[in-house]
Structure formats: C-alpha cells, structure tokens
Specification:
Length: about 270
C-alpha cells in the first residue's frame, strides 16, 4: 500500500495557554509518529496589558516559549518546527504584533482568530453560549478588520460563529459572504479547523451538528478566489493530526484549493 503524503499542521497549543496540555517537544514527537513533516506551534499570544490571562500565557513566558521551540528543533532535526502565535486582532495591538512579535522576536508567522469581539462597548466571547444577530454582526466586523490588517498568514476557524449563532439563515449567509469576500480581496487564506469536530455538538433546526466547520460556509467558499489550510488546532499531543486527512478530502470535495505556505519553511 502506498504511504500517504506527509501532513502539515500549523495550529497547535501547549500548556501555556491554560486550556491545553503538553510541551513543544511532546507535540514534535507526536507529529513524527503521525506522518507530519511541518509543525507550527501557535499558542495564544501574550498581550501587552496581559489581558485574558486565563486563556493565554503571560508576557514574561514568551522567551521560554521560544526557547522550547528552539530546543525541540535541535532535538527533532527531521521535523520542520515553526514558531507562531494565534492572535485576537485589535488596532491598539497592531504595532505590537508587527514590530515586536514579527520584528524583534522574529516569529515565523502569526495567525488570527476572532475569539473576543465588542458589542455596545463590552467584550463578548465566541465561547460564551448562544447569542443573536448583534453578536453575529460584531463577530463578522471584527473578523473583516482582522483580515484587512495584513498581519496574518491565515485566519483560523473563520466559521466559529457557528458556536453561538446556531441557525443557518440569511444573516449567517451574509456574514459568511462578508468574511469570504474580505479574504478574497485581501488574498489571505482561511482555515478549515478540525477542533470543532471534537467539541460538544449543538442542535440547529432540530438537527445535531458540529459547532464548526460549517458545511454551508465552505460550500460558499468554493465560489470565491481563496485558499484554505486544514489544521487540527491540537490542544494535546494526541490531537496533532486529528481530522486533518478526512477534512482535506472534504475540502477537495467542496472544490477548495489548498494554500501553499512552503515559503515559511525556508
């Protein structure tokens, strides 16, 4: 039997994000066991004001994070390990992301996902439970602004609004088209994220479904000039390749084109 082609996973989290387990070397060892040739480490970024520390590292941990990546590179020379971070974008952080993280610290890449957004001046979290149209519009606006920032290699789980806006209706389709249009206009890849398949499902219209990926979103995506990347968003070493191969096949079935990030590996 022909051996399957090596996989690439650009989205993994270590213990530093407070809701994952394992050190960089643990993910590297698991990656080699699961035929992964490129492993991107992308913990939730520490922020200048140390905001939201319950779900991300402290700024003082950043040096240790990068040291752990460097150590794993030396220990696993047969594996390409990239240093990244997953960010929530707010304009006040723009220079920090660009000048500090990509500049002074020399990270290989940044990704972004809309986990937090503002509604009437107050923060909402995409994981906060069922919400309505106002929150969907705020999530969409925040995601579009993130895309337009030009800072990020790809947008993680752009369809994560499926966690809190359960129905697929004209508002959900409009949100999807706004995000997809912005991605096409700004030539940025979108992530088909398999973590949603491991989360507790929700019931929409009397039918149980995964919180994401949303098939309707990705069926629409096939009509836009965008590229996609499939990642496991691993929160433990055992999840490092979870769902990637079947979701790559599904992406091909939807007529989606896979993004090429080989320039990061140079």
């Amino acid at each position: 039997m022909e051996k399957s082609r090596p996989l690439k996973n650009y989205h993994t989290h270590t213990f530093r994000c407070k809701h994952a387990a394992g050190e960089v070397r643990d993910y590297a060892a698991a990656a080699l066991e699961h035929n992964i040739s490129v492993l991107g480490i992308s913990d939730h970024t520490p922020l200048p004001d140390n905001r939201w520390l319950s779900v991300r590292m402290h700024r003082d941990e950043l040096d240790g994070y990068l040291t752990a990546i460097a150590t794993a590179r030396n220990e696993f020379p047969g594996l390409t390990i990239l240093a990244g971070l997953e960010c929530d974008y707010f304009p006040e952080y723009h220079d920090y992301y660009k000048e500090e993280l990509l500049g002074r610290y020399g990270l290989d890449y940044l990704i972004a996902g809309t986990h937090f957004f503002t509604v009437d001046g107050s923060f909402r979290g995409a994981h906060s439970g069922i919400m309505g149209r106002s929150e969907l519009k705020a999530y969409t606006a925040a995601t579009v602004k993130t895309i337009e920032s030009g800072l990020f290699t790809f947008i993680s789980h752009p369809d994560m609004f499926g966690m809190f806006y359960l129905q697929w209706d004209k508002e959900a389709e409009a949100a999807a088209r706004e995000i997809l249009g912005a991605a096409a206009d700004n030539h940025i890849a979108l992530e088909l994220n398999t973590f949603g398949l491991r989360k507790n499902p929700v019931v929409s219209g009397g039918v149980e479904r995964a919180v994401y990926p949303l098939p309707q979103f990705w069926e629409l995506a096939a009509g836009y000039d965008i590229r996609v990347v499939v990642n496991s968003d691993a929160h433990s070493p055992a999840e490092v390749a979870e769902g990637i191969e079947p979701c790559l096949r599904q992406a091909a079935g939807w007529g989606l084109t896979t993004a090429d990030f080989s320039y990061l590996e140079a």
